[in-house]
Amino acid sequence: MEVINTLGRRKSAVARVYMTAGKGDIIINGKPYKEYFPQSNVQYNIEDPFNTLDIAGTYDVKVNVRGGGFKGQAEAIRLGISRALCKVSEDYRTPLKAKKYLTRDSRVVERKKFGQPKARKSFQFSKR
User: What domains are there in the chain, each with its CATH number?
Assistant: First the structure.
């Protein structure tokens, strides 16, 4: 199996995923994923596409990720891994689509408007 590369995005995070047949190593920016993301709920996000298909430990994944926070990066990686698995086999598409792992979450931070302290918040109104 050759290298399969895909792209995953979430908020302002962009993850480039390179997947090969192997023994289940996941390397993110040169570090093992458990070291890069010490939080267990974020680690679960990355492992879940493999656990959904019961193929944990089958593919090696190398990821370059930039931008965003740890949650946005983890979800960008999850999308990239899910897309790569669909390229491996079309049979993987249905269970991943059922969990919405193939959908790009388009929600991003709303911009701050002038004359206001935040995007939606306004200064306190004073009648007198």
Answer: 4-98 (3.30.230.10)
